Amino acid sequence: MNQVAPFYADHVGSILRTKAIKDARSKFAVGEISTEELREIENVEIKYIVEKQKEVGLKAITDGEFRRAWWHFDFLENLDGVEGYDADGGIQFSQVQTKSHSVKITGPIDFTTHPFIADFEFLKEAVGADHVAKQTIPSPAMLHYRGEVVYQPYLDDAKEFVSDLAKAYQKAIQAFYDAGCRYLQLDDTSWSYLCSDEQREMVRERGFDPDVLQETYKTLINEAVKFKPADMVITMHICRGNFRSTWIAEGGYGPVAKTLFSELNIDGFFLEYDNERSGDFAPLKYVNRPDLKIVLGLITSKTGELEDETLVKARINEASGIVPLNQLRLSPQCGFASTEEGNILTEEQQWEKLRYVVKIAKDVWGN
């Protein structure tokens, strides 16, 4: 079978920060090293993990999000009209809360220049021609979901907010394409929140109707990818929350499955299926496009123990009764470090997990 991104063995993207990265960021925070010195250390460590990803057999190679503190805020706060700030509290996970930070919309949203473009260009050069450089950014829905709106025109006209946000992402996608990106992933927690009874109630408390919000995000994302070049693959990771090996949302994909799999113009979905919180494969019945790829996140990134290979293969076989095998893929259920703190496993356990994904994929798909 020919491999097209997303690949039969793939991964969500973030990698545990190395000791050198952690030390450098600590020194930078107290002014012991400069921005230039920090970037040079990041460059060295990114080159290291690029080679590690190749070594374990992956075809899609990321920079591990090594230049970021967060999977979403670092990108969002560098959009025009968006600012990061120290919030009153962090994001509450099942057992722990993140450090305090958030973003607010203070002016018209746009995309002109962005540091992630140069970051991608560095990655692409480091990856070389024999592998694919994969860029990860937050879905536009995340700014709508997490951002505090203080810009009055958006408070007066919510549709203008959505329209400007979609146009900014259109420009971002084109900018990444012009920089050589052909594999872009949108990371999104909002869809899994709309599957969770607890999170749906929180959405209502914020003044939104969860079902209306689902339609808003469908429109927003489809507009954002509307002018995607034909030879660019855009996937989406539907995340239930990932911080220090904890989570936020639970519940199967049923409440959003029809919209996700039948109505979003996305090339592939990375889905979390590593435990009972994720529900069963029944919602995959809405996959009605032969070109849509479904990446089964059957390998957890939250712990270091390897899953039972027989059970993983059995679950792939079960899913293939709903979606043809050639449309299925395998990956860890999430990244290993959605924030710079990282999940609670060792770097070697992380690489073993990725080797395991490659091994099982070769057994199932033959390459």
TrEMBL record:
Question: What GO molecular functions are on record for this protein?
Answer: 5-methyltetrahydropteroyltriglutamate-homocysteine S-methyltransferase activity
Name of the top EC class for this enzyme: transferase
Would the keyword Methyltransferase turn up in this protein's UniProt record? yes
Enzyme Commission code(s) on record? 2.1.1.14
InterPro entries given in the database record? Met_Synth_C/arc, UROD/MetE-like_sf
Q: Does the keyword Transferase apply?
A: yes
Q: Name one GO biological process term.
A: methylation
Q: Which UniProt keywords apply?
A: Methyltransferase, Transferase
Cobalamin-independent methionine synthase MetE C-terminal/archaeal domain span: 11-361
Do you know which PANTHER family this protein is assigned to?
METHIONINE SYNTHASE
Could you identify this protein by its name? 5-methyltetrahydropteroyltriglutamate--homocysteine methyltransferase
